[in-house]
Amino acid sequence: MGAGTEPDGTSRSDEEWERFLRESVAGAADAPKEPSARAREVAKRLRAEPGPPEGWRSHRPARPKRRTGWYAVGLFASLGLLAVVALAPGTVGGLFAGADSPPPAAETARPTQAPPAAAAQRPTRQEPFRGSPAASWADGAEGITVPKAEAVGWMSTAEVEQALARTRDFLIASSLDRGVLRGGHPEKAISLINPHQKDVQDFLKTAFQTPSEKNDPLLLFSRFQPSRTQLVGDTVKTRGRLTYREGERGALRVSADVTFVYPVIRADAGDDDDILRTIVRRELVLSWDDPAKVITEPGTFSITSYKYDVTNGGCGAPTGHLTPPFGSEGRADGAGAEIDPYDRSAPVGQGGPSGGACGKATRS
């Protein structure tokens, strides 16, 4: 057998075998070397990692969450708003006034100032109170605050509670009833008035037949002429209150102070016609008398006094109806003293003309 045998069975020469042994002892230049201990450790760590290592220069910090940026913007916006409030607090009320503003608290006493001005916005058929303080007022009878009942004079607590409810019913029947607003006869409201109060009964008989300054149904009732004026929507905005105390001869004396806001338009109006708001504020004093001392009927009251302010209700000779000044009529109407129809801080007649006298509304 020769000195060496190749895998294919051929023999190696003696010279090749000697060179192989020599290189095995000295080590060939391209022969693999045993790795160092550090190299073995690195190789072990790399095999354990799921992916290729990331170079230190290619490290990317985690991306900040998106809300961080909004927080910074919100912080600066809040600081800016605080500055506006500090420098011009009255301006902020105008920024947020409107139909979406929260309703004011129920009125339990006479306010000390007029409501703030709302942003100037044209009313629409969908939003007839737009641009008015009334936009945030309550609807209909909800805006009439009724106080808690307590016994007064000849009446028990339950009787006072009933009298307050019927006083509210009178305001609804006289100034909110849809039939009456469309010019109908206010039979339900009249049925609550003491039929034995002669001066008032004489007034009622005359007022609807031959209206005059002295005998004008508008003194107690809100009425429009359907052939001329159309109400916009089904809502009338209100704000006001009832109060009570003991009156003469132990009677229950109930005072009402309520503002009614009626959005109206010309009866034959087109889509582009302007909407007006007729605003009526009423002050009434009613006496629920002791039947042992005054001739009266159960469940009825006597009217002690009545006053009202009206804007956008028309000027001129009484007709028994409110006559809003549409179009060119508005330029001639309201040429007198100025009045803010939403200012309830002064009694009727002290803030401007009353009883149907013409005045110029500062806003509507």
Could you walk me through the main structural features you see in this protein, from its secondary elements to its overall organization?
The protein is an alpha+beta fold. The chain has a domain at 134-308. The protein is built from 9 helices and 9 strands. Strands 1, 2, 3, 4, 5, 6 and 7 form a 7-stranded mixed sheet that branches. It has a two-stranded parallel ribbon with strand order 8-9. A hairpin with a 5-residue loop joins strand 4 (237-246) and strand 5 (252-266). Helix 3 (66-87) packs across helix 4. It is elongated and about 155 Å long. The model is unreliable at 1-5 and 52-99 (pLDDT under 50).
Largest sheet: 7 strands, mixed
Question: Structural class of the helix and strand makeup?
Answer: alpha+beta
Low-confidence parts lasting 5 or more residues at pLDDT below 50?
1-5, 52-99
**Share of helical residues:** 25-40%
Shape: elongated
Strand and helix order: HHHHEEHHHHEEEEEHEE
User: How many helix segments?
Assistant: 9
CA distance, first residue to last residue: 127 Å
Radius of gyration: 44 Å
What is the count of β-strands?
Answer: 9
Strand content: 15-25%
Provide mean pLDDT, rounded: 80
